[in-house]
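Quick check before the chapter quiz. The format below is the same one you will see on the exam, so make sure you can read both the input and the output lines.
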Amino acid sequence: MKIKLRKRLALPLVSIMILTTIIPTSSFANELTGNNIVLDEDYNKINLSNSEINEILENAGIDKNTVKIISPEDAFSGDDIDKFIEQTKIQEEKEAIDGFTRTETILVEPKIKGRADGIECTTVVDNYTGKEEILNKKSNGMAHWVDVIFNLTIGVKTKYAWKAATFLGISPSTFQSKYINGDKLSSTISKVKSRRCYKKYNPVRKSKEWYLETSKLDLKNYVDLYTLDKNNKSVRKSKTDSKTYYTEHYSDTTWINNYVNNACKQNLSGPRIDTVI
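Here is the expected output.
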């Protein structure tokens, strides 16, 4: 089976890291061998070091010693490959609205399988980076900007809200009320989204089907402040904040098992996408 990469997608398709000594036959990794290979949207080979791979997995909270990295054709069968690509496209479009770009994607599965009910889980780790955003404007001094609450939408009702004064442990009254040339308050946010894709063999379709996706988002916000205080002394502060957000059923093992087993029994088409509320 070959994976069809759809050039009609406006944003980059999934770049897959593959650790294998077998020559893949799909168009994701045509005639490529070796370790630590990353493929971009133009099929160019990019080598990624073990330390870089380990860092991405670590940021996703995944123990590299308990998983193996696999290719998409090993993870999904039949039409689920196209669903995987399409779901990644939808996610990329949403993240692009907030200024984030997917840089790498890794697919991992547990090294040890053997669940009695036959449910399998592939975790898709998408690494997103954002550009540095300058938050202060010349309209006000830093005393104003460190006291502003900034928001980033995470889910339907969930927002990541933060304020530099609280975040950096500083007092707005310490700073100038008027803009000073060279003032800078910036934020650089990166995201690692881990999608758990639950599958089970369907005896009617005679294939392993993808029924459910839950996910978590690990967010890091690097805040950098440079300004002068009221005494015209230079002030430089920086800090990284980390937050994790989960979809509604991410940790509800009973609900997940019941849904996947019932969906397979009823021969439902999937996947159902769990969302952040």
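If your answer matched, good. The two ends are 37 Å apart (CA to CA).
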